[in-house]
User: Which sequence fits this backbone?
C-alpha cells in the first residue's frame, strides 16, 4: 500500500464504517443482505491514507463493524466498536442498533454484545437534531432510565458511549458516570458545567452541522442557528475545562470517512485558537483520555 500520510496525531472518536457520507439508503442496501467487505476496505483505506490509526465506531445492525474488527489491523488501525448500539423500543436508534423494552432485555443485549466481542456499550438516550424546525426530534429518556442503563453497563465491565442531546440528558448521563457524551447539542451552561466537573469526554461532532451550511437540504436559517449555538458551546466548554475530543460522525451526510476528522480538526482550530493559542493541548489530553477509556 502506497501514499500513506504522516500519522495524524488524533483518533477518529466517532464514525460509522457502514455509512458512506452521501446516501444512507444506498449504504444500507450495500450491507443488509450480507456484509459488503469492499465498503469496509474502501473506508479503512481512506483513514490509512490520512495517517489516522485509531477509530471508534458507533455500531450498526448489519454486522459491518463486527467484520471490520477482523480487517482493521491490515491497515495499521486500532478499531474500537460496540458492534451495535442499544436504544429503548419506540425511540431513536434503530438505524445503528438493537432495542430493548425493559432492563432485563437491556442487560441481555449487553451480554450479546460481549459474546460478539464488542469493546464497549453505546446507548441512545435522546433524539437527534431537527434540521427542518430546530430543536430535537424527541425528548430524552427519563433520568432514572439513563442512570440504570449506565449503571448496568458499568457493572458488566464496559465503558459507556452515549448518544446524547439536550441539557437534561447530558446532566443525567454525566451524573450517572457516563464515559463519553456524543454530540451534546442544545446544552445550556449548567450541562456544560456538569461535564467540566467530571471525567467525561465530550465528542461534539460539530462538523455534521458545519458541512450542511449552503447545502440547501435544510432551511439555511435553521442550520445557521444550530451552527452558531455549537460554536458558542464549544468555546464555553473549552473555557470551563471540559475534556474535549475529536470525532466527526463520519458516514453521516456530507461527512466523509477520513476527511471528516480533518474537517472537525479545522473547525476546532477555527473556533478555539482565537481563544487560546495553546488550544491543541486540550485536544491532546481529551484524545488520550478517550483512548484510555475505550
Assistant:
Amino acid at each position: 500500500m502506497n501514499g500513506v500520510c504522516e500519522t495524524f496525531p488524533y483518533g477518529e472518536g466517532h464514525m460509522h464504517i457502514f455509512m458512506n457520507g452521501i446516501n444512507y439508503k444506498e449504504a444500507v442496501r450495500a450491507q443488509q443482505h450480507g456484509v459488503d467487505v469492499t465498503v469496509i476496505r474502501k473506508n479503512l483505506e481512506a483513514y490509512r491514507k490520512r495517517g489516522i490509526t485509531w477509530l471508534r465506531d458507533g455500531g450498526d445492525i448489519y454486522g459491518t463493524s463486527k467484520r471490520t474488527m477482523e480487517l482493521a489491523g491490515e491497515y495499521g488501525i486500532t478499531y474500537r466498536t460496540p458492534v451495535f448500539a442499544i436504544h429503548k423500543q419506540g425511540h431513536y436508534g434503530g438505524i445503528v442498533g438493537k432495542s430493548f423494552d425493559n432492563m432485563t432485555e437491556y442487560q441481555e443485549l449487553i451480554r450479546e454484545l460481549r459474546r460478539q466481542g464488542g469493546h464497549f456499550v453505546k446507548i441512545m438516550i435522546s433524539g437527534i437534531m431537527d434540521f427542518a424546525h430546530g430543536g430535537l426530534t424527541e425528548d430524552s429518556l427519563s433520568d432514572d432510565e439513563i442512570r440504570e442503563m449506565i449503571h448496568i453497563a458499568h457493572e458488566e465491565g464496559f465503558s459507556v458511549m452515549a448518544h446524547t442531546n439536550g441539557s437534561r440528558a447530558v446532566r443525567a448521563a454525566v451524573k450517572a458516570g457516563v464515559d463519553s457524551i456524543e454530540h451534546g447539542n442544545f446544552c445550556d451552561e449548567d450541562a456544560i458545567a456538569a461535564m467540566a466537573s467530571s471525567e467525561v469526554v465530550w465528542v461534539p461532532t460539530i462538523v455534521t452541522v458545519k458541512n450542511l451550511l449552503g447545502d440547501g437540504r435544510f432551511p439555511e436559517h435553521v442550520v445557521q442557528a444550530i451552527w452558531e449555538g455549537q460554536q458558542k458551546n464549544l468555546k464555553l466548554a473549552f473555557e470551563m475545562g471540559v475534556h474535549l475530543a475529536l470525532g466527526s460522525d463520519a458516514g453521516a451526510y456530507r461527512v466523509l470517512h477520513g476527511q471528516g476528522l480533518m474537517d472537525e480538526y479545522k473547525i476546532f482550530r477555527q473556533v478555539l485558537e482565537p481563544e487560546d493559542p495553546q488550544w491543541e493541548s486540550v485536544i491532546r489530553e481529551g484524545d488520550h483520555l478517550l483512548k484510555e477509556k475505550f
